[in-house]
Every structure is written in C-alpha cells, then in structure tokens.
Amino acid sequence: MMIDILARLEEAIEGNRQLDKRIDALVTPDRYLIPIDGSIPIVLGHYICPDYTTSIDAALLLLPEGCAWSLSRSITFNCEAIVYGHDLHESMDAATPALAFSGAGLKARAALRAYLAFR
Question: Which end of the chain is more exposed for a tag (fewer CB within 10 A), N or C?
C-alpha cells in the first residue's frame, strides 16, 4: 500500500481526496475499512480526513515529531521536500509542496519506525 501511495504522489499533478483517504488510512488504519481489492478506503463513523495532498499544513502533520524539513524548487523538479532528524533523511519530488511533503512525511515515518524497531 505504501509503495502504491508514494508512486501516486510522485505522478499526481494535483492533490485529491481519494489520495488523502489512502494516506490517512495508512496513518490511522483504525478509522477505516480497507477493501481487499485495493479500492478507496471507507471511513468509519463521522471522521473528516485531513487534506494532506492540497494543504501544506495538513501534509506537515505527517512528519514525525521532532523532524526538521526543507522545500526547494529547481529546473529539474517542481518541488522537493526533505525531512530530516532522528538519524534519517527522506525526500520526495512532486508537482506541489503538499504532495512532496506528504510523500517525504510518509517515508520518514516508515524509516523512523524501522529504525526504532531495530535499536
């Protein structure tokens, strides 16, 4: 699921609610019913998913606590978000800052979880 979401973030030209739900279901799986066919997760109850892919503020919520970040643009990529701290350094190139931070934040969460599991 994570690899699929990261690929979708890199390929997207703008954010969308379906991608937000996929991200949120990965981060907070207890709030969703995840279909086994890979379709859009179904929200359980009266919960409104954050706008990770269209709001920088929401995307920054995906970064592990205590991490720093940077954002840059160049001729070779639209946006590159970098998340670092806790002995990790993760980045993501994407079309918009919110998409880039969403991907970098997910990568950083996964890297930190793996790091802490093997300490």
Answer: C
pLDDT per residue over 48-93, tens digit each? 899 999 999 999 999 999 999 999 997 777 899 999 998 899 999 9
Paired tokens of 55? 């709001």
pTM, 2 dp: 0.91
The upper half-sphere exposure of residue 117, i.e. CA atoms within 13 Å in the direction of its Cβ, equals 6
Beta carbons within 10 angstroms of residue 66's beta carbon: 8
Nearest CA to 83 out of 62, 52, 58 is that of 62
Which domains does the chain show, CATH number per domain? 2-117 (3.30.2120.10)
DSSP string for 58-74? HHHTTSPTT-EEEEE--
Q: Cβ(68)–Cβ(85) under 8 Å? A: yes
Distance CA 51, CA 105 (A): 14
